[in-house]
Each structure stands twice: as structure tokens, then as C-alpha cells.
Amino acid sequence: MTAIDLSSPVAVVGTGTMGQGIAQVALVAGHPVRLYDTVPGRAQEAADAIGARLDRLVAKDRLTPADRDAARARLTPVDAIGALADCALVVEAVLERLDVKQELFRELERTVSEDCLLATNTSSLSVTAIGGVLANPGRCVGLHFFNPAPLLPLVEVVSGFATDVTSATRAYETARAWGKTPVACADTPGFIVNRIARPFYAEAFSVHEIQGAEPATVDAVLRECGGFRMGAFELTDLIGQDVNESVTHSVWQSFFQDVRFTPSLAQRRLVESGRLGRKSGRGWYDYADGAERPEPHTAEKEQAPAYVTVEGSLGPASELLAMIREAGIQVREEEEENGSFLVLPSGGDLVLVDGQTSVEFGDVVYFDLALDYRAATRIALSASQDTSPQTLAEAIGLFQALGKDVSVIGDVPGMIVARTVARIIDLAHDAVVKGVATEEDIDTAMRLGVNYPLGPFEWSRRLGRRWAYDLLEDMHDRDSCGRYAPSLALHRHAHAHASDKREGTS
Questions:
Q1: Which residue of 42, 152, 283, 347 is most buried, as measured by CB atoms within 10 A?
Q2: Can you give the pLDDT at residue 340?
Q3: By three-state DSSP, how is residue 307 classified?
């Protein structure tokens, strides 16, 4: 099945930000485009706005004046749904309410031809339920663009329970012909991105709620240590706290209040207070003119230790040993089969985050997972009341000698980056086993849809087969609400090497 022919008209119903963006994508690709909105005059306003954006593309040398003029000639605002009768594809981008979308699809089915593809841009509703009101639900498919649609490459092509394979394939190839990167997924709450991204927000909020660290510190660690483009607090302020919470609540409800997707009480209070983020002038941060942005916790300068003793392997943090030597600090090695930590001159231990807490072991400092320990500009350390001041000072001084800012947080199991990455990996494995999408499409979706530095499976391969499972098991032992219990899919993945050895495979 090939993409819809460029000579065939495409319609967009709903002319808000997303509708305009989708229309612009189809228009620039070469289709005649019809714009329809139930509010009189809105379609014309949208056409004018799209025309202005085309002018800006010309000014930036991204579009020729001739192509702009041709695109404008193909754009037609209409004031009656009957004007969409000859369209080959209709994409709806109306109010995110199931009853509204269902009524629209009933009306579209009475209007367009039998071979017209009906697509919904919903981000949180069931494609199956939207198409379920049709006499032919097989032609209903999800085409979930990301905002701003003309700029972001990802499109989730969602097959509802009754969607025909030919419809999904046609939608997929059309998105690709429009210059987008489509990924195929089943109709699951949140699809790929909004399902698997939930821990990025949830774990940051959880660390804040248990008084582990303030938002500015969590955001700085996620960016400067974890390699994320933005921290969770600043990102939700940009998205809108009400919008982000609504998606979280929708996914949670759709999964029958699965504890893994439980919304944040702190975010609920923020929404209730009207602090919706940038658009209201205040969210987690204050955006008023002259307001000071809070700084992340950054430790004062400490003396670097003269030496450290390494026992065992540091696993994902093994690169630190070379960096320590390059900084002129002696590394003494001791063979220890079960060890995976550094011993500081004070006698205290410096341990890579593992889902346990410092208070359980006495004089211990944990350090967080980094995307790249050489490139990271900040490291988070976690200590308890039983950690000696000397041990903490030596740990701070060690990382400062490596050129890192150091943020000291509370005694939080899984710290910040590690718990976030582990839960993302877990949800990704669970999604594959349940037929939501392939590993490749999930990695693509998370990199392009939310700008993650690595896809979940890229992270999983880098960190090792058991890393996420072991960390979540440790966290589940300390918080048995079920949120951190590894999925069956991750359990199977973590233990697969045992069967590989029995069968003599690598």
C-alpha cells in the first residue's frame, strides 16, 4: 500500500495549534488542503496564520517564493463539512473529548467516500473507541503528531483494535512521504511516548515529595548528569502543568489506576492553585519579570583525597577509574569478587547507585548514574545522617577534582537519574512484550518525541541485562507499594542469560 497521492485533497478538522501545524505539513508536502472548523471564521483565520508562517519560511530561505505561492493556492478554508466529500484523508484535531470526536467521525462517515482514511490526532484517547462508532471502523487510524507539527519529525501511527492493516500502512507511508518519521504502535493508553515517558516526570516529583531535593537541583542533575535536554520540572512548566497532569491522569485511569502510573499529589496542588507554568507566569518556577531562578544545590569546594581504593568493578561507572588517575589521584586496586565500590581514605565507601540507601550501611556515600561520566558536568551524591562528614567531604572533593559540580541530595533510593532510567527501561520492555511496538520504534519514538539522549533499549544494552532489574528490585524492597516492582518482561530479560548458558549460546 502506497502513500496517498499528492493530487488527492487532505482535510484537517479543528484549526487550533495542532490542526494548523498538521495542515501546514500536508500543504508543504504538496497536497491540496481543506480547513474546516465548526466555529464560523476560524478556518479563514487558520489559513491566514498558515500563510504568515509560510512567509516566515521564505524569509528564512527554507521555502522559495514560488513554492509558497503554490502552497497558498492549494489551501482552502471551508465553512461546511460537505466540502470535504472528495478528500482522501481527513485528520481531526478537535477538542480532546471522546464524545466530541465520536460525533465528528459519525458525521465524516456520512460525508466522505468509502475509501477515505479517517485519522485522529488524539494524544490520550482510545483510537478504538473513537472509531468504534463507525460502520467501518477499519478505516480509522491514529496519526499522533507532536507539537510543533511542522518541526518535530515523529508521528505515532496508531492501530485501533479494528483498524485494517491496509489503513495503518497507508497512514504510515503517507506520514513518511510528508517527511516525517513514523512509528507503528498498538492502541494502548499513552501510545508509545506518553506511556513510557511517565517515569521521567513521576520520579522527579517523587524525589521532591520525599524531600530528597528541590526542583532546581533535580532538573540540573537530569540535564547535566543524565544528559536530558530539560529537567522534569522545567519541562512540565513549559508544557503546562494542567496539560501534563491531564495526560498522566488519563494514562493512570486507562490502566485501571495501575500504581506505576499514579499521578503526583504535588503536581495536583500546583494545578489547583493555578500555577500552570510559563503560561500563567508561575509553576514550579516563577516567571514574573525580575524573578530570580533558584540555583541547584552545589557543594562548596573540598579537598580531593590523595588516593582511593577500588574493590571489584564499577560497572557502568568504570570510566571513572581512568578519570581519577588522569586527575593525579592514586588508584589502589584490591581483588574483591562481590565488591563494586571505592574506599576513601576515611574508610568510608563511595558506591554507584544501586537502589539501596546509605543509612543501611553506615559510612557510605552513593553517586548517581551518568549518561557519560566524562561529559557530565554535575554529579549527585547521596548520604545519610550516619555518613561521616569526612567521608562526604572526600567524595565531594574527588568529583570536584574530576571537574564536576556536586549536588548532595537526601538518602533517596535510586537517587535521580538511575531510578528514572530504570523505570523507563522497565516500561519499554513491558510495552514490547505486550505488543505495543518494536524495540526499534520505541527507541526512535523516545529520542525524537521527547529528545531523550538514548532510547530505552539503547540504555538497557549499555547498562547491562540485569542493571535495571536489580535496581528496581532493591527499590521495591524499600517501597513495596508496587510502583517499583520489575515487570515480568524485565524479569525475563534479566534472567535470560541463565538459559543462554544452559543452551550453550552467547
A1: 283
A2: 81
A3: strand
Q: pLDDT tens digits for 301-311?
A: 999 999 999 99
Q: Is position 194 annotated as part of the catalytic site?
A: yes
Q: What is the mean pLDDT of residues 109-124?
A: 95
Q: Which of 133, 147, 143, 188 has the alpha carbon at shortest distance from 169?
A: 143
Sign of torsion over alpha carbons 221, 224, 228, 234? positive
Judge if 388 and 443 occupy the same domain.
no
Query: Would you state the pLDDT for residue 7?
Result: 95
Active-site pick, 31, 144, 208, 493: 144
User: Which CATH number characterizes residue 266's domain?
Assistant: 1.10.1040.50
Q: pLDDT tens-digit profile of 160-197?
A: 999 999 999 999 999 999 999 999 999 999 999 999 99
CATH code: domain of residue 171: 3.40.50.720
Kindly provide the b/e burial profile for residues 106-136, where b requires at least 16 CB atoms within 10 angstroms of the residue's own CB: eebbebbeeebbbbbbbbbbbbbbbbbbbee
147 is known as an active-site residue: no
The answer to whether residue 123 is catalytic is yes
- Residue among 123, 264, 384, 487 flagged as catalytic: 123
Report how far residue 361's alpha carbon sits from residue 386's, in angstroms, rounded to the nearest whole number. 9
Does residue 319 have an active-site annotation?
no
Measured at the alpha carbon of residue 410, what is the angle toward residues 408 and 413, in degrees to the nearest 5? 115
Do 17 and 120 fall into the same domain? Answer: yes
Same domain, 23 and 172: yes
SS3 201: helix
Instruction: Choose, from 156, 203, 234, 473, the residue flagged as catalytic.
Output: 156
Mean pLDDT across the chain, nearest whole number? Answer: 95
Give tens-digit pLDDT for 330-372: 999 887 666 689 999 999 999 999 999 999 998 999 999 999 9
Residue 5 lies in a domain: no
* Whether the Cβ atoms of residue 277 and residue 238 lie closer than 8 Å to each other: yes
Comparing CA positions, the residue from 379, 354, 316 lying closest to residue 473 is: 354
